[in-house]
Amino acid sequence: MKSDDQIVVVAVVVVVVVVVVVVVVVVEVVVVVVVVVVVLVVVEVVIVVVVVVAVVLVEVCKPYERYFISFLRGRVVVVVVVVVVVVVVVVVVVVVVVVVVVVVVVVVVMVHVIGDFGILCV
To answer: For the chain, what are the domain ranges?
Structure first.
């Protein structure tokens, strides 16, 4: 084989490797975006369900409003603290879930890219 032929073969192999790696990275990035969007949509649906349940409970409990107000009188601080703690816990759980999903997907992307590149280089 002449040296020009060898250069052409090496150039073709390099181009194929680069194209395959780029395609894999693009596909994996799309997967990451889709997973994050799905997680965020699920979180939004959960928030909407919680709000709807809260509104329904408020409407159902309206006839007993006097009893609740008299019961809560003097306990307003406790109720506010409980609501704040619940909101903070929900936000922290959502953030942790999103971060874990993103980290897992990024690790999968890196393993695929390194694995595919390694296979092509062999």
So the answer is: 3-121
